[in-house]
Design brief:
- The chain is mainly beta and 182 residues long.
- It has one domain (2-169): Jelly Rolls.
- 7% of the residues lie in helices and 40% in strands.
- It has helices at residues 32-39, 166-169, and strands spanning 2-5, 12-15, 19-21, 24-26, 47-54, 58-64, 72-78, 80-87, 98-104, 110-113, 117-123, 127-134, 143-145.
- It has a 6-stranded antiparallel beta sheet, with no helix packed on it.
- Strand 3 and strand 4 (24-26) form a beta hairpin.
- The chain is globular.
- 31% of the residues are buried.
- The mean pLDDT is 95.
Length: 182
């Protein structure tokens, strides 16, 4: 696997090695031992989720508050998405900054997002199947979010019309005095 650092400390782009021939291809989408050796991180993923969405859907920006904060390893297995991680760590030099990476069935990229980040994605293709592994279980009482349309963040979701859930429309805007749980 190839690991690329991003402008946000701890957020990594992971590209697997594909083995292909006239039948198609094969690759390890996750190997705990290799992941730990290559990243130096020791994370136990305990839950894997999958979503199906259509073009223009934007999901996020979600996080789990401590003590149930989650690290995530995400990928798009069908279609294409713009995946976004926002640094919510109060004492980080990159607090309030984000990284956006296209993940698709064609580039096979994955994004590792450590605890302390909000996460979301927009669907760029006609439809997409998105998978993510989480380092802790989902706890409804620890759910948090930041409004996707927060001008202070300045995220270009690369779509013309957003399809949002009612819950995602109601998250608070990110601003100078927004209180981060991290």
């Amino acid at each position: 696997m190839t690991i690329t650092t991003t402008s946000l400390d701890g957020v990594l782009i992971i590209e697997p090695i594909l083995f292909g021939d006239n039948r198609g291809y094969f690759y390890e989408s996750f190997n705990k031992k290799k992941f730990e050796e290559e990243t130096g991180l020791h994370i136990d993923f305990v839950q894997q989720n999958q979503s199906f969405s259509t073009k223009g859907v934007v999901r996020g920006l979600h996080f789990q508050k401590p003590p149930y904060a989650q690290a995530k390893l995400v990928r798009c297995v069908y279609g294409a998405v713009l995946d976004v991680a926002v640094d919510l760590r109060k004492y980080s030099a990159t607090y309030g900054q984000y990284v956006a990476v296209e993940l698709s069935e064609n580039n096979h990229r994955q994004l590792f997002i450590p605890e302390g980040f909000a996460h979301g994605f927009s669907v760029l293709s006609d439809s997409a199947i998105f998978q993510y592994q989480c380092s802790d279980y989902y706890h409804p009482e620890a759910e948090g979010g930041v409004n996707l349309k927060s001008e202070k963040l300045g995220i270009d979701w690369e779509i013309s019309e957003m399809k949002l859930s009612e819950k995602d429309k109601k998250w608070p805007m990110f601003y100078e005095n927004w209180v981060s749980p991290f």
